[in-house]
Amino acid sequence: MRTAAVILCAGASRRMGRNKLTLELGGKTVLRRSVEAFIGAGIRDMVLAFSEPARDEAERLAAEYGLKLAEGGSTRGESVYNALKVMDCDIVAIHDGARCLVSQEIILDSVASAAMYGSGVAAIPARDTLWKEGEILDRSAVMAAQTPQTFAFDKILAAYEKAVREGYEATDDCAVYRHMWGEAHFSKGSVANQKLTVESDMELFGPMCGEQRTGYGEDTHRFAEGRRLILGGVDIPYAMGLLGHSDADVLTHALIDAMLGAAAMGDIGRLFPDSSAEFKDICSLLLLERAWDRIKAAGYSLVNADATIVVQQPKLAPHIDAMRENIAKVLRCDVDRISVKATTPEHTGPEGNLECVTARCVCTLKR
Ligand code: MG
């Protein structure tokens, strides 16, 4: 069966006060999230019914995914009808672009119901006590209809043609379908499948759209005489220090690489080439600050970082907390998001042989 979808992005966003379909959640627009939910469910034949404020984003998505576009109308029903008129399929799922948290499961259940019964309207039983003009309604008899609302294409097209002929207006497709065909089937909905409606919804939707990414960084610097030993910005008294173009703070370098890795933004060598005089003997905490500014600008915040320094000598335990505090200060985060550990390699390998110090770090970012 040829299954297609209509994504509505022609609303006026009156209750939001700004176009909600082009707002970003977790680095993607609301409309993109809806479109990609359907693509994730295997539905690529899609028409976006847009109005002017969402035009650019709709055109971008249409070009990227090979989707069709239809002009939105002055009502929801008009927009749906305009989209249906340019379609040819067996089953059509109609979805509010602002319901960007829709899951594959909900989409597929709605489609399966339409394939079996001719209709599948995502809905959930009412949860709250419902009052109407001083009377409590029987909650068990009340369903809250969401989208997608999926139908046999011929039947919903005919229902919209009839609605247009008769001037029948409704706030959803289920009502239009019932106006011609009687009963409609409900399919699985969910509490999370909400429509982004008012400004305060952004706080609710934000964490549900967040993405976490983890990166790894590793660095080694050779021991040398006549150099300082700086780890995590702490100047540690020792007979030898670490060789490097900057202050050779191997811990901070591994952390920078882990953070850049999580954001897929390259590595420390690309950002701060050691061919550049600007970085000669520079305090690596300054490099950390600059790298973090870039990562933050890309929309990330820090979840945590965990580093291990492999070092035979000197003992680092007395300095660990100062390192954590230095790093937390630069990243402007709580110190408990930063973990630094040290391990001695039992005189094995180049670290155990006092040739070098190695640091390894993992870091998780979210946006
Ligand atoms: Mg280095």
Overview of this protein structure:
There is one protein chain. The mean pLDDT is 95. The longest helix is centred in the N-terminal third of the chain and has 14 residues, at 104-117. This protein has 12 helices and 18 strands. The chain is 34% helix and 27% strand. The chain has a 7-stranded mixed sheet, with helices on both faces. A 5-stranded mixed sheet has the order 15-12-18-16-17. A hairpin with a 2-residue loop joins β2 and β3 (28-29). The chain has 367 residues and is of the alpha/beta class.
Q: Give the amount of beta strand, in percent.
A: 25-35%
Total helix count?
12
Order of helices and strands: EEEHEHEHEHEEEEHHEHEEEEHHHEHEHE
Q: Classify the secondary structure makeup into a structural class.
A: alpha/beta
Radius of gyration: 29 Å
- N-to-C terminal Cα separation, in Å? 38 Å
Q: Can you list the ligands bound to this structure?
A: magnesium ion
Largest sheet: 7 strands, mixed
- Please state how the strands of the largest beta sheet are arranged side by side: 5-4-1-6-10-7-11
Total strand count, please?
A: 18
Low-confidence stretches: none
Helicity range of the residues?
A: 25-40%
User: Average pLDDT value?
Assistant: 95
Q: Specify the overall morphology.
A: elongated
List keywords for this structure.
binds magnesium ion, 367 residues, alpha/beta
